[in-house]
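Why Amidohydrolase-related domain-containing protein? Reviewers of the renewal asked for a concrete example.
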Amino acid sequence: MAPTKVLTGARVVLPTGTVDDGRVIVEGTRIADTAPERAETVDLGGHWVVPGFVDLHNHGGGGASFTGGTAEDVLQGVHTHRLHGTTTVVASAVTGDLDFLARHAGMLAELAQQGEIAGIHFEGPFISPAARARTTRGCCATPTRPRSASWSTRRTDTRA
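Here is what the prediction returned.
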């Protein structure tokens, strides 16, 4: 079992406001309600303690891409963001060939099931040609009911 630590003296940001000279009790990697008497105390006077950041639109990090990379690339990007205070990441990918997207979605879905990412955000493939910006026309697909159902539910090879 991981040791319990009590972080003291910091300005703590809570959903209800800011607490000066607050106490945050950490058990392993989680914030807990109480601390045993023998808990290690860490004085954070002069610092802030804030909740982890959630990034809902992210294409990668640390030189790695969520858009077309491997599972290892995604994990490298997630690790980089965690080192800088982002605790939750939604992997964003740009549109592409439907078969590639299905394979990539399978790989990202596995990482979501493992808790490495919170979810997946695809920009496409059902983009209006009038709003496609720099996306090539070949990456845009007409959102027919069978195509949408097929793409969103199939799980092919989960390795990108």
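The longest strand covers residues 4-14. This is the kind of structural detail the renewal will allow us to pursue systematically.
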